[in-house]
Amino acid sequence: MRVLITGAAGQVGRELVTAFADHDVVAADRATLDTTDRAAVLAAVAGWRPDAIVNAAAYTAVDACETEADRAYTVNALAVRHVAEAADRVGAHLVHLSTDYVFDGTKPTPYDEWDVPNPRSVYGRSKQAGERELAGRPDVTVVRIAWVFGEHGGNVVKTILRAAADQPTLRFVDDQRGRPTAAADAAAFVRRIVADRRPGLFHATNQGEVSWFEFARAVMESAGHDPGRVEAIATADLVPPRPAPRPANSVLDDVALRLSGLEPLPHYRESLDRVVAALTR
Questions:
Q1: Cα–Cα distance, 95 to 193 (Å, whole number)
Q2: How far is 212 from 203, CA to CA, in rounded Å?
Q3: Across the chain, what does the average pLDDT equal?
Q4: Burial, 265: exposed, middle or buried (Cβ in 10 Å; 0-12, 13-18, 19+)?
Q5: What is the DSSP letter of 111?
Q6: Would you say residue 108 lies in a domain?
Q7: Is 111 a catalytic residue?
């Protein structure tokens, strides 16, 4: 099977390349394929003729999106239109990665796949727009992930480990909750979706609900540091305040995954221990 992976240089993209290593992989970073260029996308996909496309390309600088809305919508929405059009022309199954930021975070219980999105940030609205570009297409899968961490790229686990090396106290908010997603686990799930050519919308996060405060303590403990060095603060007390609003509740329940009989992703702590061990060895 030939699999085209866009955004292949990102933290999830690199894990996707590894997950599909036993297939014919076309790993396209932005230099190889600019998904915002319709003509380039159509020509490249027509030439490569993949059986499946995994679109991991995105503009994920959440706060920067607030002042760079055109860029956010170009990369996160219009580019999705181009990739979907190209996939249709060659009959490729398309898997598109989305986010918990499509929700406003006000629901008192976890969000399932049938909850109505209501994003509050430009990033969230641009990602919802990308999902809308795929609405009604029969051979498309949207996979929402959240709080992504892994061995590659910038992420909160690396930030915590760096801070632990030179700061006596770390402060993380305790009023935002979610389910972390290990990039490698998300990539393994996408591989299953591609193998089954299974369409629809899925939430695919690791098991285990935590606040950022609790997650930071888990990272410290996993790395052999004293988790008591992590202090809890409120989002409203962040200095400087973040330009983009964050969902207070980012917990994505994987209802569609369970009802489909698919194996859930492992508990986040199991994957966190693996990632921390790799980053600290």
A1: 8
A2: 20
A3: 97
A4: buried
A5: B
A6: yes
A7: no
- How many domains does the chain contain in total? 1
- Rounded Cα distance, 97 and 167, in Å: 35
pLDDT 10s digits, 228-254: 999 999 999 998 999 999 999 999 999
Q: Over the range 93-132, which residues count as b (16 or more CB within 10 Å of their CB) and which as e?
A: bbbbbbbbbbbbbeeeebbbbebebebbbbbbbbbbbbbe
The active-site residue out of 73, 101, 123, 268 is 123
Residue 64 located in a structural domain: yes
CATH number at 191 reads 3.40.50.720
Binned at pLDDT 50, 70 and 90, residue 76 comes out as: very high
Residue 271 inside a domain? The answer is: no
Residue 164 inside a domain? The answer is no
User: Across residues 66-94, what is the average pLDDT?
Assistant: 98
The reported pTM is: 0.97
Residues 87 and 94 sit within 8 Å (Cβ to Cβ): yes
